[in-house]
Recover the amino acids of this structure.
């Protein structure tokens, strides 16, 4: 039984249909259908019940899916073990933040693709938290403070940020001097997140309020520069605004604790070698380019 057929079946089962699986795999629906036909013909049972809404696993399909996933993982592990040192192949699906993934992380991914010509890399740029397992990603790069989950995370570098505002906003509303005074100010933010600040060795958490929200850090920086409110943003986003004077740091006596950039992956005993090498490259990139992330301040 071909490993690509097994992997395709698992993807169809997890994606809920042939069309969704084809998009994840980057192949045509006809190829997906042929692979499913071969595997069902070899087993002599129907694994999927096709409907107008997609595909549902039959009872046999439910049983076979877990076995197929384990077998695929074992074969991939064995394949990696016998490949020449450093050589990677297969597919790597990565989810990255849209805010600065294309500018800050994309060069690392491009370099990795250049070094491994048999590796197929599919990257999705979005600031929403993707469901790695449900959407079929091998890993994601996430920035900030990680939420509790069953995902496995590896920190690749620190991210420093600051509370900023435009000179026009400060002229109109004043500059907060203490954490308590934040309640009197408008904030531009992603949603209902909490802001954290250091008061000596103590972390103080604040629930900011504001009428302008966006799921993209670059958009929030532009809103803050337009005078719509205070913003807590990474230095690598605000650097050009601060350099030009469009934004200025405020409440500097209470700096935010350092956040981080992480590679997160679904739970499992060992990370696949592709994810491990991507992680190592990101760690090296942070170390080589501290000025990009504001680490040399």
């Amino acid at each position: 039984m071909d490993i690509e057929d097994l992997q395709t079946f698992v993807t169809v089962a997890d994606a809920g249909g042939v069309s969704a699986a084809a998009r994840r795999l980057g192949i045509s629906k006809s190829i997906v259908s042929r692979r499913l036909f071969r595997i069902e013909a070899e087993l002599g049972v129907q694994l999927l019940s096709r409907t107008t809404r997609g595909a549902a696993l039959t009872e046999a399909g439910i049983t076979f899916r877990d076995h197929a996933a384990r077998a695929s993982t074992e074969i991939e592990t064995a394949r990696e073990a016998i490949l020449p040192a450093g050589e990677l192949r297969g597919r790597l699906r990565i989810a990255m933040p849209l805010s600065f993934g294309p500018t800050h992380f994309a060069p690392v991914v491009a370099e990795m693709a250049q070094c491994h010509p048999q590796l197929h890399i599919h990257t999705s740029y979005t600031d929403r938290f993707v469901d790695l397992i449900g959407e079929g990603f091998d890993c994601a790069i996430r920035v900030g403070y990680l939420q509790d989950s069953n995902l496995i995370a590896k920190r690749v570098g620190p991210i420093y940020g600051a509370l900023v505002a435009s000179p026009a906003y400060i002229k109109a509303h004043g500059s907060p001097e203490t954490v308590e005074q934040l309640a009197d100010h408008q904030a531009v933010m992603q949603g209902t997140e909490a802001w954290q600040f250091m008061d000596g060795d103590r972390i103080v958490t604040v629930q900011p309020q504001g009428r302008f929200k966006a799921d993209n850090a670059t958009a929030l920086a532009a809103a803050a520069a337009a005078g719509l409110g205070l913003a807590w943003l990474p230095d690598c986003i605000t650097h050009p605004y601060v350099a030009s004077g469009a934004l200025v740091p405020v409440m500097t006596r209470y700096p935010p604790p350092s956040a981080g950039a992480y590679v997160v992956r679904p739970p499992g005993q060992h990370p696949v070698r592709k994810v491990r090498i991507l992680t190592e490259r990101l760690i090296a990139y942070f170390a080589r380019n501290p000025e990009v992330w504001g680490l040399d301040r």
Q: What stands out?
A: The mean pLDDT is 87.
